[in-house]
Amino acid sequence: LVARASSATGRPRGSLTLDPALPIPRYIGALEVHLMPGGYVAEHGADDVGAGALFDRQMTVNRMGSQGALNDDPGRSLVAWLQSRFPGFRPRRILELGCTVGHSLLPFAAAWPEAELHGIDVSAPCLRYAHARAEALGVAAHFWQQDAERTRFDSGSFDLVFSRILMHETSHAAVPRIFAECHRLLRPGGLCFHSDAPQFDELEPYVASLRDWDIRCNNEPFMDAWYEMPVEQLFAAAGFDAATCFRGWAPSLHVAASGVDPKLNRSGGRYFLAGAFRAG
Protein backbone atom coordinates (compact mmCIF):
# COMPACT_ATOMS: atom_id res chain seq x y z
CA LEU A 1 0.00 0.00 0.00
CA VAL A 2 2.80 2.41 0.85
CA ALA A 3 4.50 1.66 -2.48
CA ARG A 4 1.28 2.17 -4.43
CA ALA A 5 0.58 5.42 -2.62
CA SER A 6 4.08 6.62 -3.39
CA SER A 7 3.75 5.79 -7.08
CA ALA A 8 0.41 7.58 -7.30
CA THR A 9 1.94 10.81 -6.00
CA GLY A 10 5.01 10.77 -8.22
CA ARG A 11 3.88 13.73 -10.34
CA PRO A 12 1.37 15.46 -8.08
CA ARG A 13 -1.43 17.75 -9.17
CA GLY A 14 -2.20 18.65 -5.58
CA SER A 15 -0.15 18.61 -2.39
CA LEU A 16 0.28 17.08 1.06
CA THR A 17 1.55 19.03 4.07
CA LEU A 18 2.02 17.15 7.33
CA ASP A 19 2.82 18.51 10.78
CA PRO A 20 4.39 15.85 13.04
CA ALA A 21 4.28 18.28 15.97
CA LEU A 22 0.52 18.84 15.76
CA PRO A 23 -1.17 18.04 19.11
CA ILE A 24 -3.88 15.45 18.59
CA PRO A 25 -7.18 16.49 20.26
CA ARG A 26 -8.01 14.29 23.24
CA TYR A 27 -11.39 13.33 21.75
CA ILE A 28 -9.48 11.70 18.88
CA GLY A 29 -6.33 10.44 20.58
CA ALA A 30 -7.68 9.21 23.92
CA LEU A 31 -10.02 6.54 22.59
CA GLU A 32 -10.23 4.15 19.68
CA VAL A 33 -12.92 5.81 17.58
CA HIS A 34 -15.16 3.22 15.86
CA LEU A 35 -13.24 0.61 17.90
CA MET A 36 -10.41 1.00 15.38
CA PRO A 37 -7.25 -0.44 16.99
CA GLY A 38 -5.00 2.53 17.70
CA GLY A 39 -7.64 4.89 16.38
CA TYR A 40 -7.21 6.68 13.06
CA VAL A 41 -4.03 8.51 14.06
CA ALA A 42 -1.83 5.52 14.89
CA GLU A 43 1.14 4.97 12.58
CA HIS A 44 2.70 1.53 12.14
CA GLY A 45 5.65 2.41 9.94
CA ALA A 46 7.16 5.04 7.69
CA ASP A 47 4.71 6.74 5.31
CA ASP A 48 1.87 4.66 6.74
CA VAL A 49 -1.47 4.85 4.90
CA GLY A 50 -3.16 1.95 6.72
CA ALA A 51 -5.78 3.89 8.67
CA GLY A 52 -6.90 5.67 5.51
CA ALA A 53 -7.18 2.44 3.54
CA LEU A 54 -9.15 0.79 6.34
CA PHE A 55 -11.52 3.76 6.59
CA ASP A 56 -12.11 3.63 2.83
CA ARG A 57 -12.94 -0.09 2.76
CA GLN A 58 -14.77 0.02 6.08
CA MET A 59 -17.13 2.63 4.66
CA THR A 60 -18.00 0.33 1.77
CA VAL A 61 -18.77 -2.58 4.12
CA ASN A 62 -20.53 -0.53 6.79
CA ARG A 63 -22.78 1.21 4.26
CA MET A 64 -23.17 -1.96 2.18
CA GLY A 65 -22.07 -0.17 -0.97
CA SER A 66 -24.86 2.41 -0.72
CA GLN A 67 -22.42 5.30 -1.18
CA GLY A 68 -21.20 4.14 -4.59
CA ALA A 69 -17.98 2.57 -5.81
CA LEU A 70 -15.88 5.52 -4.59
CA ASN A 71 -17.90 6.19 -1.42
CA ASP A 72 -18.41 9.70 -2.77
CA ASP A 73 -22.21 9.75 -2.93
CA PRO A 74 -22.53 12.08 0.09
CA GLY A 75 -20.23 14.63 -1.55
CA ARG A 76 -21.89 14.37 -4.96
CA SER A 77 -25.36 14.58 -3.43
CA LEU A 78 -24.50 17.57 -1.21
CA VAL A 79 -22.99 19.40 -4.18
CA ALA A 80 -26.11 18.80 -6.26
CA TRP A 81 -28.30 20.08 -3.42
CA LEU A 82 -26.19 23.22 -2.98
CA GLN A 83 -26.27 23.98 -6.71
CA SER A 84 -30.04 23.60 -6.73
CA ARG A 85 -30.65 25.62 -3.55
CA PHE A 86 -28.08 28.38 -4.24
CA PRO A 87 -27.65 28.49 -8.04
CA GLY A 88 -25.70 31.75 -7.98
CA PHE A 89 -23.13 30.51 -5.49
CA ARG A 90 -19.79 29.70 -7.14
CA PRO A 91 -16.96 29.17 -4.64
CA ARG A 92 -13.37 29.72 -5.70
CA ARG A 93 -11.67 28.19 -2.63
CA ILE A 94 -13.21 25.30 -0.72
CA LEU A 95 -12.16 23.77 2.60
CA GLU A 96 -13.35 20.54 4.18
CA LEU A 97 -12.79 20.09 7.91
CA GLY A 98 -12.07 16.52 8.99
CA CYS A 99 -11.73 15.31 5.42
CA THR A 100 -10.36 11.84 6.36
CA VAL A 101 -9.62 10.36 2.90
CA GLY A 102 -11.42 12.92 0.73
CA HIS A 103 -14.63 11.04 -0.05
CA SER A 104 -16.75 14.18 0.27
CA LEU A 105 -14.22 16.73 -0.93
CA LEU A 106 -13.28 15.49 -4.41
CA PRO A 107 -16.81 15.71 -5.92
CA PHE A 108 -16.61 19.49 -5.56
CA ALA A 109 -13.98 19.51 -8.32
CA ALA A 110 -16.50 18.26 -10.87
CA ALA A 111 -19.10 20.82 -9.79
CA TRP A 112 -16.77 23.82 -9.71
CA PRO A 113 -13.67 22.85 -11.76
CA GLU A 114 -12.05 26.24 -11.30
CA ALA A 115 -12.22 26.02 -7.51
CA GLU A 116 -9.18 25.23 -5.38
CA LEU A 117 -9.81 22.32 -3.02
CA HIS A 118 -8.32 22.01 0.47
CA GLY A 119 -8.90 19.37 3.13
CA ILE A 120 -7.64 19.15 6.70
CA ASP A 121 -7.50 16.32 9.21
CA VAL A 122 -5.40 15.43 12.25
CA SER A 123 -4.59 11.92 10.96
CA ALA A 124 -1.38 11.67 8.94
CA PRO A 125 -2.11 8.13 7.66
CA CYS A 126 -5.54 9.20 6.43
CA LEU A 127 -4.12 12.30 4.75
CA ARG A 128 -1.40 10.32 2.97
CA TYR A 129 -4.06 7.98 1.67
CA ALA A 130 -6.31 10.92 0.72
CA HIS A 131 -3.50 12.52 -1.28
CA ALA A 132 -2.65 9.28 -3.09
CA ARG A 133 -6.32 8.61 -3.76
CA ALA A 134 -6.91 12.08 -5.21
CA GLU A 135 -3.84 11.82 -7.43
CA ALA A 136 -4.89 8.35 -8.65
CA LEU A 137 -8.32 9.79 -9.52
CA GLY A 138 -6.75 12.76 -11.33
CA VAL A 139 -8.10 15.41 -8.97
CA ALA A 140 -5.95 18.28 -7.70
CA ALA A 141 -6.53 18.75 -3.98
CA HIS A 142 -4.36 20.10 -1.17
CA PHE A 143 -4.32 18.17 2.08
CA TRP A 144 -3.06 19.58 5.39
CA GLN A 145 -2.55 18.08 8.83
CA GLN A 146 -4.35 20.69 10.89
CA ASP A 147 -6.88 20.96 13.72
CA ALA A 148 -10.33 22.33 12.80
CA GLU A 149 -10.48 24.22 16.10
CA ARG A 150 -7.54 26.44 15.13
CA THR A 151 -6.29 26.25 11.56
CA ARG A 152 -3.28 28.07 10.13
CA PHE A 153 -5.10 29.59 7.17
CA ASP A 154 -5.53 33.34 6.82
CA SER A 155 -8.81 34.97 7.81
CA GLY A 156 -11.27 35.38 4.98
CA SER A 157 -9.45 32.95 2.70
CA PHE A 158 -12.32 30.61 1.68
CA ASP A 159 -15.70 30.90 0.00
CA LEU A 160 -17.00 27.56 1.30
CA VAL A 161 -16.09 25.74 4.51
CA PHE A 162 -17.86 22.49 5.34
CA SER A 163 -17.67 19.21 7.21
CA ARG A 164 -19.17 15.80 6.66
CA ILE A 165 -19.64 13.46 9.68
CA LEU A 166 -17.02 15.39 11.67
CA MET A 167 -18.93 17.23 14.37
CA HIS A 168 -20.15 14.20 16.32
CA GLU A 169 -16.50 13.11 16.73
CA THR A 170 -15.54 16.26 18.65
CA SER A 171 -16.56 17.63 22.08
CA HIS A 172 -18.61 20.25 23.93
CA ALA A 173 -15.56 22.52 24.15
CA ALA A 174 -14.52 22.00 20.52
CA VAL A 175 -17.85 22.72 18.80
CA PRO A 176 -18.08 26.48 19.45
CA ARG A 177 -14.40 26.89 18.55
CA ILE A 178 -14.92 25.08 15.24
CA PHE A 179 -17.95 27.23 14.40
CA ALA A 180 -16.00 30.39 15.24
CA GLU A 181 -13.08 29.20 13.12
CA CYS A 182 -15.43 28.60 10.18
CA HIS A 183 -16.66 32.18 10.47
CA ARG A 184 -13.10 33.52 10.62
CA LEU A 185 -12.02 31.58 7.55
CA LEU A 186 -14.90 32.70 5.34
CA ARG A 187 -14.92 35.71 3.08
CA PRO A 188 -17.99 38.00 3.35
CA GLY A 189 -20.82 36.21 1.58
CA GLY A 190 -19.14 32.84 2.12
CA LEU A 191 -21.05 29.72 3.04
CA CYS A 192 -20.52 27.21 5.85
CA PHE A 193 -22.38 23.96 6.34
CA HIS A 194 -22.02 20.85 8.47
CA SER A 195 -23.48 17.53 7.34
CA ASP A 196 -23.94 14.77 9.86
CA ALA A 197 -26.68 12.46 10.95
CA PRO A 198 -29.74 14.64 11.67
CA GLN A 199 -30.37 16.53 14.88
CA PHE A 200 -32.72 14.66 17.17
CA ASP A 201 -35.45 17.29 16.67
CA GLU A 202 -35.61 16.12 13.04
CA LEU A 203 -36.41 12.53 14.02
CA GLU A 204 -39.20 10.58 15.63
CA PRO A 205 -38.23 9.40 19.13
CA TYR A 206 -37.96 5.73 18.11
CA VAL A 207 -35.65 6.53 15.18
CA ALA A 208 -33.54 8.75 17.44
CA SER A 209 -33.24 5.92 19.95
CA LEU A 210 -31.61 3.70 17.32
CA ARG A 211 -28.62 6.06 17.30
CA ASP A 212 -27.86 4.81 20.80
CA TRP A 213 -26.20 1.75 19.26
CA ASP A 214 -23.42 3.85 17.74
CA ILE A 215 -22.95 5.80 20.93
CA ARG A 216 -22.58 2.78 23.20
CA CYS A 217 -21.16 0.10 20.91
CA ASN A 218 -18.99 1.97 18.44
CA ASN A 219 -17.01 4.42 20.60
CA GLU A 220 -18.98 7.55 19.68
CA PRO A 221 -19.22 9.23 23.11
CA PHE A 222 -20.14 12.72 21.87
CA MET A 223 -22.70 11.63 19.30
CA ASP A 224 -25.87 12.08 21.36
CA ALA A 225 -24.68 15.45 22.70
CA TRP A 226 -24.03 16.82 19.19
CA TYR A 227 -27.43 15.69 17.90
CA GLU A 228 -29.14 17.58 20.72
CA MET A 229 -27.29 20.84 20.06
CA PRO A 230 -29.27 23.75 18.52
CA VAL A 231 -27.26 24.35 15.36
CA GLU A 232 -28.90 27.69 14.54
CA GLN A 233 -27.84 29.08 17.92
CA LEU A 234 -24.30 27.82 17.33
CA PHE A 235 -24.11 29.61 13.98
CA ALA A 236 -25.47 32.84 15.47
CA ALA A 237 -23.07 32.70 18.43
CA ALA A 238 -20.15 32.31 16.01
CA GLY A 239 -21.11 35.51 14.19
CA PHE A 240 -23.12 34.18 11.25
CA ASP A 241 -26.21 36.01 10.06
CA ALA A 242 -29.05 34.23 11.83
CA ALA A 243 -31.45 35.15 9.04
CA THR A 244 -29.42 33.07 6.58
CA CYS A 245 -29.35 29.84 8.61
CA PHE A 246 -30.81 26.85 6.83
CA ARG A 247 -31.38 23.13 7.17
CA GLY A 248 -31.79 20.70 4.33
CA TRP A 249 -31.89 17.09 3.17
CA ALA A 250 -29.82 16.25 0.10
CA PRO A 251 -31.33 13.28 -1.77
CA SER A 252 -28.83 10.52 -2.47
CA LEU A 253 -27.91 10.46 -6.16
CA HIS A 254 -26.69 6.87 -5.87
CA VAL A 255 -29.90 5.62 -4.29
CA ALA A 256 -31.99 7.41 -6.93
CA ALA A 257 -29.89 6.05 -9.79
CA SER A 258 -29.87 2.47 -8.49
CA GLY A 259 -33.59 2.30 -7.83
CA VAL A 260 -33.08 1.05 -4.29
CA ASP A 261 -35.84 1.68 -1.78
CA PRO A 262 -34.52 4.65 0.27
CA LYS A 263 -35.91 3.05 3.44
CA LEU A 264 -33.39 0.24 3.06
CA ASN A 265 -30.55 2.76 3.21
CA ARG A 266 -29.31 3.74 6.65
CA SER A 267 -29.41 7.44 5.75
CA GLY A 268 -32.94 7.12 4.40
CA GLY A 269 -31.65 7.89 0.94
CA ARG A 270 -30.69 11.46 1.87
CA TYR A 271 -28.11 13.47 3.80
CA PHE A 272 -28.87 16.08 6.45
CA LEU A 273 -27.04 19.40 6.52
CA ALA A 274 -27.27 22.70 8.36
CA GLY A 275 -25.52 25.90 7.37
CA ALA A 276 -25.39 29.67 7.18
CA PHE A 277 -23.80 32.52 5.23
CA ARG A 278 -21.31 35.00 6.58
CA ALA A 279 -22.69 38.52 6.38
CA GLY A 280 -21.17 40.43 3.51
Please, could you describe this protein's structure?
- The protein has 280 residues and is α/β, with parallel strands linked by helices.
- It is built from 12 helices and 8 strands.
- Strands 1-4-3-2-5-6-8-7 form an 8-stranded mixed beta sheet, sandwiched between helices.
- Helix 7 (174-185) links the parallel strand 5 and strand 6 (186-195).
- Helix 1 packs across helix 6 and helix 3 (50-62) crosses helix 6.
- The longest helix has 13 residues, at 50-62.
- The mean pLDDT is 93.
Keywords summarizing the entry:
single chain, 280 residues, alpha/beta, 12 helices, 8 strands, globular
Summarize, please.
This protein is α/β, with parallel strands linked by helices. Helices cover 35% and strands 18% of the residues. Helix 1 crosses helix 6 (124-136).
Strand order of the largest sheet: 1-4-3-2-5-6-8-7
Number of discrete helical segments: 12
Number of strands: 8
Largest sheet properties: 8 strands, mixed
* Run of helices and strands: HEHHHEHEHEEHEHHHHEHE
- For the terminal residues, how far apart are their CA atoms? 46 Å
Q: Spans of 5+ residues with little confidence (pLDDT < 50)?
A: none
- How much helicity do the residues have? 25-40%
Please state the average pLDDT score: 93
- Content-based structural category: alpha/beta
Gyration radius over CA: 18 Å
Shape: globular
**Estimated share of beta-strand residues:** 15-25%
Question: Which helices and strands, and how do they pair?
Answer:
Layout: H1 2-8, E1 15-17, H2 26-29, H3 50-62, H4 73-85, E2 93-97, H5 107-111, E3 116-121, H6 124-136, E4 142-145, E5 158-164, H7 174-185, E6 186-195, H8 205-210, H9 212-217, H10 223-228, H11 231-237, E7 246-251, H12 253-258, E8 270-277
Helix pairs in contact: 1-6, 3-6
